[in-house]
Structures are given as structure tokens and as C-alpha cells.
Amino acid sequence: MTLTVSAISSVEHQAFVEAQRSVSFLQIPEWGAVKTEWRSESLGWYDGRRLVGAGLVLHRPVPRLERYTLAYLPQGPVIDWTGSLEEWIDPLAEYLKAQGAFAIRLGPPVRTDVWSAAEVKSGIADPEVERLIRRGEDRVTRWLEGAGWLPQSPEDGFGDGQPQYIYELPLAGLTEDDVLRGMNQQWRRNIKKALKEGVEVSVGSEVKAFHDLYVHTAERDRFTPRPLQYFENLFASMSSARLYLAHHQGSLVAATILVRVGAHAWYLYGASSTSKREVRGSNACQWAMIRDSLAAGCDVYDLRGITPTLDVEDPHVGLIQFKVGTGGQAVRYVGEWDLPLRPMVYRAFDLYMKRRRR
After folding, report:
1. Record's PANTHER family (predicted)?
2. Dist CA 81 CA 102 (whole Å)
3. What domains lie within the chain, and their CATH numbers?
4. pTM higher than 0.90 for the full model?
């Protein structure tokens, strides 16, 4: 098989995505419209005249060298990762270098390890276990290393790109009762508590109200919030994005954002009020999103990033403890990798990024 890569229209790209069972929301044309600080491009892989793969590329220019870009394909591209990888990746590199890319960054949507909720809980309870233990290398990682790609995902914590470790709740073939039985007692109790307290969850469009609560959450939990315009653009650009709002006696107590592509649903952002936390609005929002994902026929409800830590003294362990309560499983992906196409420019960009992080 001899493959070629060329630009395709967003309509062609979207049609290809819709023919797949599951594609990351980061690899659909609409995501390019959300990332306004990047230039987006849809690419297609052709076997003769047949479109057999697609990818969303986000181009980031080099400061003072705007003709060169970092070509980023988050959680992509959508190709046959079980096949001969050089047949797919080599024409991509050739095309992007000709377009002025100084490097390519990929995030292959390939899993390397899965840990059940029981394994995660057991690890947290065992003082001798400090992190999720990998079970071996995979062929994609070996190929990337052999082809000169450089790993970018940090071993601990979150980096600048997409998380390598995520937590997900498999839904295929399950009912609402099945999902509830898989949750821990605390999660089931919180969902019932929200119902008993009269928390009402609806899908709405009050982005400003969400953002106000999100900024409050950021101040409380000490992270840097995204601006209101980012969320306004997200809802304007992504047709599948849904805003869930939990109210208690007229007060907004929690809000979350869900995105669905095909059979995969993602929990993207959440916010909650410090007051009235006892009415469990966040759990009510989560349960509403899970129920709607089940009703839509989704295979997976994705709670997004975690760190691999199981150490109870690590401040990040609370995140995985919260998510493991849903049942489900922790998953490790191949991670993000860079291929320098113009080494001198790549080194300059790497130095610039390191200085920014200081």
C-alpha cells in the first residue's frame, strides 16, 4: 500500500469522522475553530483515490520565525495504528515539512495499559505502592523511539499537552442500574443526597454563569482559569458541546461541560460553589451526563486526565480517588511525541518553551 497525504476540506474531514465509531474531539474540524491561537488544517491519507485516514493539524508559529510552525495532532491522527506505521507517518512528515513545519507533535490514540478500579483502590490502600505500575512496552512506542521521535509526556503530573493517563467509565452494554452498582458507596450516596435535597440539573446556555462559578472554583482550588471568550467560542464552534447546570433553590451550585463524538463522551470542565457543597451538585451533574451518554449509546464516558500517583501523601491523588468512585478504569496512552524536521529551529523553540515555564 502506497499512501499519500494532502489537505482536505472540513466537510470531507467531518464525513470521515462520522463514519468512525469513535474519534477524539481533538481530531474533529470543529476543534480547530476553538483553538483560535493556532492555525488549523485538515489532512487526509489516500490509498489511490480512497480516503483512508484523517487528521486535524494545529500549526503554532515560532516567535520571530513565523514561517516555521510546530504541527500538532492532539490525540491523532485517525489512521490504522495497527498497520505499518512508516507507511502512514512518512508521507505526513514529508507533507508537513514542505509546508514549513519545523517539527511534528503526535498523540497516538493508542492504549498501553489498563487498570481496573479494584486495582487502583488496592494500590492506594497499599503504602508500598506509589504509582500505577506499567506492564510492558508496546509496538507503537518502540517504533516511535526507533524512528527518532522524542517523548514529551511527563512521567508525573500534567504537561503542556494532553494527559497520558486518563480515567474512563465503560458503558457498552450497561444499564443505569449496572453503572450505579459499579460505583462506590460514597458516589451512590451523593447522587441520592442531591436528589433528596432537590438539586435540579438542566442543559442550558448560560455560559457567563458557568464562567463565574468556574473562576470561583479556580480561586478556591488554585489553578489558572481560562477566559470567558474561550468558552463562548467553544460552544459557538462545537455542535456537540453541552452545558449542564445544577441549581438548588434557585442558586447555581455546580456546572459541567460534556462533549460527545460518536460513541465517546468526555467530561471537559467542571465548577462548583463552595457554599452548599453538602447538596452534592457536582455528583448530580456527573450522573446527568453519564445518563445522557448511556441514552446516546456511548461506549465510554471519559473523565479525562489523572496522574499515575497512588501515594496518599501526593496532592494529586485526590483526583484519582474522586474518579475511581465511579467504577471504571485507569488507562495509559502512548503519550505525545515530537519529530524534529528542522533541528536548529526545534532547539530554539524548545529553549523558548523552557524559559516560558520558569
Report:
1. LIPID II:GLYCINE GLYCYLTRANSFERASE
2. 24
3. 1-107+336-358 (3.40.630.30), 172-298 (3.40.630.30)
4. yes
